Amino acid sequence: MSKDLPNSLMDLFGELDGHDDKLGSVASALSVRLGWIIISLQSKLDVKSNLYQDVSLTYLFLMNNLHYIVKKVKGSKLLGLLGYGWLRKNQGRVRQYAENYEREAWMKALNCLRDEGIHVRGDFSSGVSQQVLEDRFKGFNFAIEEALRKHSGWMVPDLQLEEELRISIAEQMIPAYRSFLGRLRKYLKSGSQSNMYIKYTPEDLETHLLDLFHSNPSVSSRTSEISSRTSEISS
């Protein structure tokens, strides 16, 4: 999501808040009208999401906007019109969009941390291909930098959703990187050349991930908590 929610969503729920006292009956004309507007908005969001060339940002856009709709419906009398089935279905869609976003945005970096193709037989006494290992570190650095650059102008307006998403990303990335680095950095050439390939410590990576989505200053106070959680996962 860019800096602002679509005006149509803001206008809709501004209207809803202003007329909430008229929604006592789910049969009222206003209730029915607003219900259909919400359903129509969901369809329009799907269409608008196709304008993004990057698939990960498509899912982030859908997650943000559908979460906004779900939250507003849940806190209003429209829930009586749309029903708990609608609520559960769309809460599930929000979670699925979040999972799809994480996969599309961060899997490229995670794939660089796999062992497949690094270990060889015969040619190297260490059993590790120096070239493949160097390429993996370079690929990881590039993927992380690309992802961070791509997300610099995006945000998750809901603070709870923002934190959950950030923690989920950190819990996938940090233990995997820490383990990869701990097992294989010794096979890189020593000295200044190794610094060409290892641009991030696990702590550096964590700091960058915690700054995603224009996080609030209070986020830094949660760093130690997340660090302990990711350390437990990697141990």
From TrEMBL:
Q: Which organism is it from?
A: Picea sitchensis
- Per its database record, what is this protein's job? Component of the exocyst complex.
Q: Which family does it belong to?
A: Belongs to the EXO70 family.
- Transport as a keyword of this entry, yes or no, is yes
Taxonomy, superkingdom: Eukaryota
Q: Which GO terms describe its molecular function?
A: phosphatidylinositol-4,5-bisphosphate binding
**UniProt-listed Gene3D superfamilies:** Exocyst complex component Exo70
- According to the entry, every stretch annotated as the Exocyst complex subunit Exo70 C-terminal domain falls at 27-211
One term under GO cellular component = exocyst
Query: Is Protein transport among this UniProt entry's keywords?
Result: yes
Residues passing through the membrane, by range: none
Swiss-Prot/TrEMBL GO biological process terms? exocytosis; protein transport
Q: Under which name does UniProt file this protein?
A: Exocyst subunit Exo70 family protein
Tell me the InterPro entries matching this sequence.
Cullin_repeat-like_dom_sf, Exo70, Exo70_C
